Amino acid sequence: MASAGPGPRRRRDRLFALVALAAALSWSGWLAQLHLAGRATPLDRVESALVDLRLRLAGPRPPPPGVVIVAIDDETVRREGGFPVSRATMARLIDGIAAARPRVLAVDILFLEAGRQPDADRALGAALARVPAVLAAAAVFEGVSSEDGIPVAASLHAPTEVIAGAAASGVVNVSEDAAGVPRHLPLVVRTGEGVAAAFVLRAAALAAGHDPVVERDAVRIGDRTGPLDLGRHLPLRPYGPRRTIPTMSAAGLLDGTVPSSALADRVVVVGVTALGGSDTFATAFDPVLPGVELLATGIGQLTTGDGLRRDVGVRRLDVAASVVVAAAAALLIALAPPGPAILLALLLLAGWLAAGAVAFAHGAWWSAALPLAAAGLPVLPLAVARQLLDRRRAAGLARSEATLRRLQPAALADRLAWDPGYLAEPVARDIPVLFIDLSGFTRQSERLGPGRTRAVLKSFHDLVDETAARHGGLVVNFMGDGAMVVFGALDPDPAAAAGAVASAADLVARTAAWIAADPELDGAGRTLDVRIGAHYGPVILSRLGSDTNQHVTATGDTVNVASRLLAIASEAGARLAVSADLLAAAGIATPGPLFERRRATAIRGRARTLDVWLGRGAEPV
Q: Does residue 274 lie within any of the structural domains?
């Protein structure tokens, strides 16, 4: 079965490209919708790993100016004799900090219940009242969020009023990704009583002296505006490992070994860093970063504006890039060779990832997992589909080539395969031309019938083709019970004439033996015999036919003479009629036992006679 032609093949390629493009756009569009809505997907784990990689590539950053941590560290706990630190000790610590006149005091410690010593609680409240202060509050979530993505708390645990006094409070909850890595801080939380602000937002607003304005994708505090992610979440970008943000021990402040002047006009964040006494988080720079440093990071980003930008505009850029990359990868797989297509698709993805790493270092959080999933995941099934299509096409081409090869001599088919321009322009060459015919076969075909006639001719044609090829001949045409053979047609061959003579002798002997071996043909008697005419001289080798239907042939007087010699052999009762010109070209001075006589013969259309050798050839053994 022949393969489809160029038109159907092009239509099939276009259809595959359209299907591949539609599949890539559908897949990337579905992922894009999830990304724009901020839905949790398995891609979050991949994105988490890639974010950490980009953080490490960008490296630690200078800490935010004006933010200091006062740590209730292991030494403080040791001196206190255990954890938690008493309210009286906390009152003395905050008194000392307030005396240094910080810009803001943010205390990441939950004072949810009254202590055992009411005087200590009142002293702590009085100390907090001496400085703009924010206390920690904790929200309890049950996985619910509002329509605009703002998290909804089932309950809110606020500081006790005795301690809070004039201090504000803010939610200290951190939003972690699927891998448990803190990625965001929710700046607002809905509760049953309204909207609660985040701890870091309260502290940054007090430091700036302006109320914050939290919009859908940005937060404005005074004259500084910072980008927000979906649901009014602040993307976190750790500055480095623990203690990257300046940290001093609470024990040192309490005993005076650390000067409190280092806290003047600073945002002071008080929190627990003691082993076993604090919540810790795994980040790209530190597997156990204390929670107070994470909150100090958020405050620093809000006060300096040096956080990550991942607002709606960035997410739309992610979507656009993912759709474009996915469409480009699909079209490459569909239209380009598979190897280069996959390489180009990988280079395209690598280019986007490299650009994303550069953007990340400059504060823009472009998604890495989304383009990888949008373009990378369809590449494999599309490549497999393309491979199957190419194999099917190759099989069709192989069948077509096998079929076409049957329409051309094997040697000619091989030549055209590596030299498609062969005989695009006619070539003049002196070569032998041989005609062979089964005389008397027309009468036999009436007796044999159509089916048997075709089978006999097929056997005869196989014999002629095999014998001619053995001696360097090329059958350019089968004519019923005859054939035309040329020698030296593919390339100039000094032995072409000798091959033609040898082929003629071989054809006579093999054809006679073939006739004798078939009972039906042998019964035909002398009415069935082989005739051969052969001549040597100039011919024109060329392609004949239209642009879409051509065959290779030889034309010229030499062809006409060889055809006429076939008739002369029949008229003379000989099997062979070979011109003296052919024998001379073959270097044969004495013809030998193949030929019985030589005579000058008149050729129709020629003024002069031609020396011709006639003979019956060697009888088959």
A: yes
Give tens-digit pLDDT for 567-610: 899 888 899 999 999 999 999 887 778 888 888 887 776 778 88
602 three-state secondary structure: strand
- Mean pLDDT, residues 307-323 taken together: 93
- Which of 226, 310, 235, 364 is closest to 36 using CA atoms? 310
pLDDT attached to residue 385: 77
- Phi, psi for 374 (deg, rounded to 5): -65, -40
Q: Are residues 490 and 558 in the same domain?
A: yes
Residue 449's CATH number:
3.30.70.1230
Rounded-to-integer distance, Cα 259 and Cα 262, Å? 6
For 270, phi then psi, to 5°, come to: -100, 130
Rounded to two decimals, the pTM is 0.67
**Confidence at residue 50, expressed as pLDDT on a 0 to 100 scale:** 93
Query: What pLDDT, on the 0 to 100 scale, is given for residue 412?
Result: 72
**Contact present, 556 and 484 (Cβ < 8 Å):** no
Over residues 147-155, mean pLDDT: 85
Nearest to 425 by CA among 347, 317, 540: 540
Do both 162 and 216 map to the same domain?
yes
Number of domains in the chain: 3
b/e map 332-358, b = 16+ CB within 10 Å: bbbeeeeeebbeebeebbeebbeebbe
Residue 300 inside a domain? The answer is yes
Domain identity same for 331 and 366: yes
Find, among 373, 217, 394, 235, the residue nearest to 302 by Cα. 235
Q: Is the alpha carbon torsion for 272, 273, 276, 279 positive or negative?
A: positive
Evaluate whether residue 580 is within a structural domain.
Answer: yes
Residues 147 and 198 grouped into a single domain: yes
- Shortest CA distance to 124 belongs to which of 163, 178, 173? 163
Residue 235 maps to a domain: yes
Its domain, for residue 607, covers 410-615
End of a domain among 398, 428, 459?
398
Same domain? For 116 and 136 the reply is yes
What is the spatial distance between Cα 114 and Cα 527, in angstroms, rounded to a whole number? Answer: 131
Residue of 371, 245, 366 whose CA lies nearest to 317: 366
Domain shared by 134 and 246, yes or no: yes
The dihedral formed by the CA atoms of 379, 383, 386 and 388, expressed in degrees to the nearest 10 = -140
**Helix (H), strand (E) counts: the chain:** 20, 25
Q: What is the pLDDT of residues 269-279, one digit of tens each?
A: 999 999 877 78
* Domain stops at, among 238, 272, 304: 304
Per-residue pLDDT averaged across 239-261, rounded? 91
pLDDT in tens, 273-300: 998 777 899 999 999 999 999 999 999 9
Q: 187 - beta bridge partners?
A: none
Residue 209 CA to chain centroid, in angstroms? 54
- Quick one: 258 and 323 in the same domain? no
